[in-house]
Amino acid sequence: MAPAQVQDGDNELVKQLKEALQRLHDLGERVKALERQAERNEQQRNGAASADMPAHAHAPGQPQPDRRNHTTDGSRTTAAQRLSQYVDPRTAYGGTAPTWGLPPLPASQVPRPISTTDVPMGATRMVMAQIVPLSESNGLDICLGGTVLSWIDVCAGLAAKMFSHGPCVTASVDGVHFLRPCHVGSVVIVAAMVNRTFRSSMEVGVRVEEEDSRTGARHHCCSAYLTFVALARNDPGGPSPAKRTLPKVVPTERHHERIHAEAASRRDARLAARKQLHSSLEQMAQGTELRLRPITHREGQPTLPPALRVDPRDSGKRRVAPSLTAAHTTQMVLPQHANSIGVTFGGQVMRWMEQCAFVAASRVCRGGYMLTATMDSISFLKPTRVGDTVYIEGQVTAIFGSSVEVMVSVWGETPDIGVMFHCGDAYATVVSVDCHNAPVHIPFELSPESQAEELRYRMAIQKRAERLALRDRMCRRKKMRVSLDGGIRSDSDSSDNDREAISQALTTKPGSPASNGCPDGAGQDVAA
To answer: Hey, what domains does the chain have and what are their CATH numbers?
Structure first.
């Protein structure tokens, strides 16, 4: 190309740029004129005395006032308000914004506007990864169930707090079934997501998976549903914080719609059960009677019942009273046990519950090792705070071949006040196994003595049937499901010995030896 042609092209480009700048300047002047006209119209509507005075008028000799960050009444405007009033000169007066040669985005990929009342369900996801340390395991290199429950509570609490932008407390935890144990050295992936909101409360679904660090295989271990209540921040010395209204969670995918609908059904079931309990004075009286009182508040009680022994020459079972399986523990809530507003973590309380349940189960289990199979639903009636004393009482309520049900009652007490209050009850199923993870027959038979012990035993039989029915529904789930963190779970090795030990113990009838066999796929998914 000749130098003259290049120079002519440059001159033409400069000319076009000058014309474009002039058009932008004219548009800017037009926008300023419209703003001044709008100010005059506003003054006329308000009946101001200076309605006929130009908006830019000022006293002679005085500098021009800065109106960029103020409204017509003199109040300051925020950056968001100024941004919303900005007029893009590229699209003003019928113009179109340049596309820079790129094709427009499809409608499905256009970013949604930020809203304080409409949050996509997928945006509430929270994922944690933990390596199981040796200190959190039993003698079989299996992670303790209480540790997994505490991880579940922490991950769910993070999802709830990030979603609500404020403090949250655990109100209840639905029953958790441990389908597979987590082993020492493996990676435990805990994924949580807000399933649905209900004014000031929300349901958070949690899914726990174990990833074998040697093979990379990932397996579903358990799922949980937790209810959190959002609280407003308060002064440390002020009254208890009030509840806050939460934004709405909206499902954006097909499987999210199913989870969203199931969350409403679960909430209705919780409210119906609570209403039925409160409407029946007899059930309320039974619930109060069944609670285990702290041993420190009972006169004439030993610190721990004497050890139970079995005569090797006796081929039958020894009958024992439930009171001989009593266990208790006392804890003080320290700062590391509580959240940012000083309320004890629900997961920490569940960890203490499991420890007390193990002590009670060890009174009759003779396998040498114990595994937590299930932890029934828990409602935290009253919270404990930093500095409070927590009393946890446990007692075996029923024996089923190689597994036992343990009732655990939690009480709290503020030392400055000295009044004890009830925090909640829980029922844990503990399995007795040997060093090869095989179920071990329990050589004891429970013999209730009081009316409360007899009632606990009958309720244990009923709850066991409900657990087995729920486990049967788990077996019918599909084997492949997308995890909350995006991975694909595989249950190809459904005959794992660890899971068989738990399943065999749970399906054993009361008073019979541990049975062999379990429905194939006993560890299939319960969607979180």
So the answer is: 118-297+317-506 (3.10.129.10)
